[in-house]
Design a protein that fits this description.
The chain is mainly alpha-helical. It has a domain at 17-41. Helix content is 37%, strand content 0%. The protein has helices spanning 2-12, 29-36. The radius of gyration is 15 Å and the shape is globular.
């Protein structure tokens, strides 16, 4: 019962975007998806390149 309640609370948490910077220039989108997928489902990765 406790495990079910714990899982239910996790499902109710609202997902929020995260912003990651200062990674290597040759980092690939698939690498970021693989790294962050252990924390939940990845809906989109938007990588900016160049100098801001």
């Amino acid at each position: 019962m406790v495990l079910f309640g714990f899982c239910q609370v996790l499902l109710e948490v609202k997902m929020r975007p995260i912003f990651v910077g200062n990674f290597e220039f040759d980092t690939r989108q698939s690498e970021l998806e693989r790294f962050f997928s252990k924390y939940g489902r990845i809906e989109r990765v938007d990588m900016k390149s160049g100098i801001a």
